[in-house]
Design a protein that fits this description.
Elements lengths: L1 H17 L13 E4 L10 H9 L7 E4 L8 H19 L4 E6 L3 H10 L6 E7 L17 H6 L4 H6 L10 E6 L18 E4 L13 H11 L1
Parallel strand pairs: 1-2, 1-3, 3-4, 4-5, 5-6
Helix pairs in contact: 3-4
Length: about 220
């Protein structure tokens, strides 16, 4: 009987060893930092953040950076953004973040990637209606607004950002542009060599890129 009991115990233990191992819990997605455009604030991202939360992102993984769009130089803003990224990484314990920008928000974040070591800390970067090669409308306010000055075609900021590799490092880049964008002139300014450049479906105005459900889902797919 004792031998039989030991045999049965061995069979049970063997079956457990050969059984399917418990599935590992899926790793949480990268924290996402949303960066608004000129004369805007973090509240513009409410709808898209709701979409991300509905797709499974915890609210503790969603952040929005606020900055002075009219006075600070692009280099100063890039340094401030770098500190914000480090804070998010420390708070979440993540290795890298994803960055989603609208309009002017593309420029200080690109500077961080190109000249601030950001490519080691940013996995995905998104530009919605970004003036990545400038917009002629910025001349209307460039004399008194630093953000506008930076957005003028061939500005100091843009000439440096576009002089070499426009999508440096291992970071993955994507842009969305609209044929009906009334703020980016020409609308082709947003696309970047080396990025996944997409035309938004439908006739979306500049700020519609922030709230369009299709754009939101496409951005989610790109990040995930």
């Amino acid at each position: 009987m004792r031998r039989l009991a030991l045999f049965l115990l061995a069979v049970v233990l063997g079956a457990g060893a050969l059984g399917t191992a418990p599935a590992r819990a899926a790793a949480p997605p990268n924290p996402v930092i949303f960066v608004h455009g000129r004369n805007a604030g973090t509240g513009v991202w409410g709808g898209m953040q709701d979409d991300f939360a509905a797709a499974g992102y915890g609210r503790e993984r969603l952040y929005a950076w606020s900055y002075d769009t009219g006075k600070s130089s692009n280099e100063v803003l890039a340094g401030e953004f770098a500190a914000y990224v480090d804070g998010v990484l420390a708070r979440t314990g993540a290795a890298r973040v994803d960055v989603v920008t609208h309009s002017l928000g593309a420029l200080p974040t690109r500077w961080y990637l190109a000249f601030g070591g950001g490519t080691a800390k940013v996995a995905h970067w998104v530009s919605l209606g970004g003036p990545n090669h400038g917009t002629s409308l910025a001349y209307l306010c460039a004399l008194w607004d630093q953000g506008c000055k930076d957005m003028t075609p061939n500005s100091y900021v843009l000439s440096h950002l576009n002089a070499g590799d426009k999508t440096p490092g291992p970071t993955r880049y994507a842009t969305w542009w609209s044929a009906c964008d009334e703020q980016i002139a020409p609308v082709s300014s947003t696309a970047l060599d080396g990025a996944d450049n997409r035309q938004a479906t439908g006739c979306l105005k500049h700020n519609d890129l922030l709230t369009d459900d299709t754009v939101s889902q496409q951005v989610l797919t790109f990040l995930r």
